[in-house]
């Protein structure tokens, strides 16, 4: 077994990890870092449950080699908690709009929502559908998820 | 954990070539959005991999002094879509790539990987072929360039010789200046799907916008590799920009294509769709070029 030591920033904290070169980033985050918001769904990059931010862009961590994370800045849902322990406005919107049923797809969609929020743009409902097309939710039919996204992303801009 | 035998990480292009020489059986991995899935599914196992993914020297889009567009192969689909150079001079490529996979796939998938896989359904391939892209390939004996049409040798087979890697995709000024084009992908779903048929058309109109000075069209999934449609091009080149020409162009498509029946679609269905989307893409291209269809 070949291993490699990588350095990266995870949820704002610089870390050094020794990983099996065959590991996916999802393997490393879940098993090496106990960040279990990163869900393993399809393992082939189709469902989006393992989606995380790498240098501000969304990636399915199940098809991203852990060794490629060397030098990168990674954010998972665990990194959204405020110092006071409050939910992030995106998470709060998911609660208010009942956009969660089983919850398995939720962390991945939250990370996509964060990248949309960070883009500084406003999105129509159709555009939001396009932007979450890399996520599968088998419970909700997406309506409440879209309601939550509209609320979180577009209202954030109104406040500014 | 992926089932592969070894991973060699290239630090530079020369290093990648050296690693490929040292490990002649090794496969190149770029973004891995095809290869890692094949490994996961057990279609490929025990591979040695040379990773070029972290080579930032192979990322970016620029215009060279002579006006040639230079797209580096590890540029992700989403970075190509967002590139101001692509938006200005080659927006049909952005339009084609924005129909591939979903957002996360477009962030990891590289345009070089999309071509080097040799897959007929690749969303970038028909557009690059229809714009006469040339490929720059670097290997142990230096750099060579060839037309993308000559790169495709057969289904899944491309003209990459031992220890060679794709290092740039080039579109000359003559190939893009004054051309307007459209890519139409026919698939069962609007996202996360593979084309049943894909068609990329572009035109250059005469100054008075009444004649089609040049037209180029390429298809994906109408044969084992992405292919141009010479009979259709001949039927419309030099002809008036009219609905009559469009109909003749679409009818000629049949002579150029050899689709097959698979679980996705039958040969007959693909033939029908190919004609129809070629027609629509030509109409849209003519309109984009400022023409009016009589």
Note poorly predicted spans of chain A.
Answer: none
Q: Give the radius of gyration of chain B.
A: 19 Å
Number of domains of chain B: 3
CATH topology of the largest domain in chain A: Ubiquitin-like (UB roll)
Order of helices and strands of chain B: EHEHEEEHHHHHHEEHEEEHEEEEHHH
Silhouette of chain B: globular
The residue-averaged pLDDT of chain B reads 97
Give the helix level of chain A as a range of percent.
Answer: 25-40%
Largest sheet of chain B, in brief, is: 5 strands, antiparallel
- How is the main sheet of chain A built? 5 strands, mixed
Mean pLDDT of chain A: 95
| Named CATH architecture of the largest domain in chain B | 2-Layer Sandwich
Number of strands of chain A: 5
CA-to-CA gap between the ends of chain A? Answer: 52 Å
CATH class of the largest domain in chain A: Alpha Beta
Order of helices and strands of chain A: EEHEEEHHHH
Q: How would you classify the helix and strand content of chain A by structural class?
A: alpha+beta
Protein architecture, described:
The complex is a heterodimer of chains A (160) and B (294). With 160 residues, chain A is an alpha+beta fold. Chain A has two domains: 3-78, Beta-grasp domain (Ubiquitin-like (UB roll), Roll), CATH 3.10.20.30; 89-159, DNA polymerase, domain 1. Helices cover 33% and strands 17% of the residues of chain A. Chain A has five helices and five strands. Chain A has helices at residues 25-32, 89-96, 106-118, 125-131, 143-159, and strands at residues 3-10, 13-20, 51-54, 57-60, 73-75. A five-stranded mixed β-sheet of chain A has the order 2-1-5-3-4, with helices on both faces. In chain A, helix 3 (106-118) packs parallel to helix 5 (143-159). Chain A is globular and about 45 Å long. The termini of chain A are far apart. Chain B is α+β, with helices and mostly antiparallel strands and 294 residues long. Chain B folds into three domains: 6-51, Uridine Diphospho-n-acetylenolpyruvylglucosamine Reductase, domain 2; 60-174, 2-Layer Sandwich (Uridine Diphospho-n-acetylenolpyruvylglucosamine Reductase, domain 3), CATH 3.30.465; 180-288, CO dehydrogenase flavoprotein, C-terminal domain (Enolase-like, domain 1). Chain B is 35% helix and 23% strand. Chain B is built from 13 helices and 14 strands. Chain B has helices spanning 13-22, 35-40, 77-82, 84-89, 91-97, 103-108, 111-116, 125-130, 148-151, 173-176, 230-236, 243-256, 267-288, and strands spanning 6-9, 27-29, 48-51, 61-63, 69-71, 134-139, 142-147, 152-154, 157-158, 165-171, 180-186, 197-205, 212-220, 227-228. In chain B, the strands form four sheets. A five-stranded antiparallel β-sheet of chain B has the order 4-5-10-6-7. Chain B has a four-stranded antiparallel β-sheet with strand order 11-12-13-14. In chain B, helix 11 runs antiparallel to helix 12 (243-256) and helix 12 runs antiparallel to helix 13. The longest helix of chain B has 22 residues, at 267-288. The radius of gyration of chain B is 19 Å and the shape is globular. Chain B starts with 5 loop residues before the first strand and ends in a 6-residue tail after the last helix. The model of chain B has no long low-confidence stretch (mean pLDDT 97). Classes of the chains: A alpha+beta (160), B alpha+beta (294). The A-B interface holds A 2, 20-24, 27, 43-46, 48, 51, 57-60, 63-65, 67-68, 70, 112, 130-135 and B 1-4, 6-7, 9, 32-33, 36-37, 40-41, 51, 53-54, 78, 101-105, 107-108, 190-192.
